[in-house]
Amino acid sequence: MALSRHIPITNELVFPAGVYAVGGVEQVVDFEASTREQRVQAHDKDSGLPLWAISVFDPDPEARTKVVRVKIAARTPPVLPQAAAGSPFPAVSFEGLTATPYVDTSGSRPRLAWSFRATAVRAASPKAQVPQSLHRPESGG
Prior knowledge:
By secondary structure, this protein is mostly beta strands. Helix content is 3%, strand content 33%.
C-alpha cells in the first residue's frame, strides 16, 4: 500500500468553518524520556526536530471535537499571528497538514480518533464572501 501513516489533507477539509488558536505554542512533552524532576521535549520521529503543539478551536457546529491540538515539528517555536480587531483569538491556517488515525481507548469504549500535524501555521486568509443578489424577489401583494 502506498498510503503513508500521515495522510495529507487540507486545512479547509478538516476545518471548513475556519479555526482559531486558543492558547500559546507549547512544547510537546516526551513522557517516556521525562522524569518528575525534568521534562523532556518530544522530537519528531521522521525529522528529529522538536515538536510544538497549538490548541485550536473549531467553530463548526457539526464538529464532534471542539478543541484539538495540532503538532508542528520545527527548530524554533512557531509564531502565532495576531488576533483580528474585535476577536479574542487569532484565525489560523495550517500548511502541510496531515491526519493520522488511531484508536482512542481512554473512554468507556474505544473509538477512532485523529492526530493532526502540520509543517507551519500562518494567519488565515479572509474567506471569500458570497456576493448578495442585486435583485430581490418581489413580494406578491
